[in-house]
Amino acid sequence: MFARFPSLAWAGLLALGLQATQVAAISKISAVGSKFFTADGDQFFVKGVAYQLTDNDPLVDTAQCKLDAALMKELGANTIRVYHVDPTEDHDGCMSAFESAGIYLFVDLETFDSSISQSNPYWNSTQLKAYEAVLDTFHDYDNLAGVLIGNEVLTMTNGSWAAPYVKAAARDVKAYRDSKGYRKIPVGYAAADIASLRPMLQDYLACSANSSENIDFYSLNAYEWCGDNTYSGSGYSMLQKNATGYSVPIFFSETGCNSAPPRTFQDQNAIFGPEMSDTWSGAIIYEWIEEANKYGLISYGPSLAATAAATATDIVGGFTRRGTPTPISPDFSNLKSVWKTLTPSGVKLSEYTASVSSITPLACPASTSGGWEVDPSSPLPTLDQTATAAGSGSTGTSGSGSGNGSGSGTAGSTGAASTSSGAAAPGARAPMATIFAQGTASAAFVAYSALVGFTGFMAWWL
């Protein structure tokens, strides 16, 4: 019956089918020992950018995501970090756009009203349900690299009393993940760079003999390397010393000091070079969009006076929040040039697996009066438990080296940078309706499967 169709038509169908089979899904990320690996067995290094265009969810505007993903791919980025999302929205279009560009996502589970408080630590069912909702929404995306259960919760010298609640959140999110049968999506924490809390917090979050209580990765918001600095002068050598022997992956969840512009991103040479790449799994640069803090890698248009911005569409704080991304010179090209030269191969999973069983958590830090005040023998808080002791923390000191870090730009930051990922700004735009409706992905998969099957038959028949 097939003989009546022109051979040219068959060739066209065959070519289309073969093209479809060549579009491989992105390889899922997992945490194994102290490193990230793709499902293909390659070690994964984070080359990322912080992506929060407004306080609203940036992963619902498919058209904008496609524009940004294309330029991020040119930059050399393979990861974004998003601080706030709305689990009730449709994210298929944006997640597909970033996946097509080879870009993964680390997403914070907390919202403005569900984050863990340092001044009054507690962990309750309402918070857990909010975290679960975000995980439920994103778990099925292959390019979800990991989730964060907190961002800079501890920012005080004596703020350690909140640490057990952070660890309890990781425990319960991991338990929920496993109870739902989701893949082992890494669950981690992003810490403020407070010298008086390092490395105690870092070790504490991963020190339990019971791995179900430990974070799956640890990340640090650090702005120590500023301008023309060095590996030792910046304090990075101390960060490396503190991280040596760490039992889970560790990376920079924010970096890119701008106190000595233009930014040349010299720290990336250390992070991805022989000094640190065997311990650290990469870095996320702060941030994608240009704002008043001057950390942006791109701009969507010139800044506007407050009077003009008051009634303009997609303007917050005098800065346009969507449109065609234009690189900020020379920061964008500087980062692109640096990243292009840094391609650590790491270790293959097949070679690394044999050594994983020998990796053991570092010892839990001992409690010290007036400093790290967490008893390592105390059990973690139970769900719905609130701290009973009064906190007596004072503002901590950021950084450990001579680099004068300007601090993180995210909510709860100890530094001066201000960003859309902080408190909600008045007049923030409502999310644009996504282009893809719910169910499009599954329908496309059915069509794709049929096409692949048909193509295989035709390849055999011809």
Automatic annotation (TrEMBL):
Residues 368-424 are annotated as: Disordered. Residues 393-412 have a biased composition (Gly residues). Residues 1-25 form the signal peptide. Its EC number is 2.4.1.-. Residues 413-424 have a biased composition (Low complexity). It is a lipid-anchor; GPI-anchor. The keyword Lyase does not apply. It is found in: Cell membrane. Its main location: membrane. One of its GO terms (cellular component) is side of membrane. GO terms for biological process: fungal-type cell wall (1->3)-beta-D-glucan biosynthetic process; fungal-type cell wall organization. It is an enzyme of class 2 (transferase). InterPro entries: GH, Glucanosyltransferase. The chain crosses the membrane at residues 441-461. The keyword Transferase applies. GO terms for molecular function: 1,3-beta-glucanosyltransferase activity. It comes from the Eukaryota. Keywords: Disulfide bond, Glycoprotein, GPI-anchor, Lipoprotein, Membrane, Signal, Transferase, Transmembrane, Transmembrane helix. Splits internally a 1,3-beta-glucan molecule and transfers the newly generated reducing end (the donor) to the non-reducing end of another 1,3-beta-glucan molecule (the acceptor) forming a 1,3-beta linkage, resulting in the elongation of 1,3-beta-glucan chains in the cell wall. Involved in cell wall morphogenesis. Belongs to the glycosyl hydrolase 72 family. This is 1,3-beta-glucanosyltransferase.
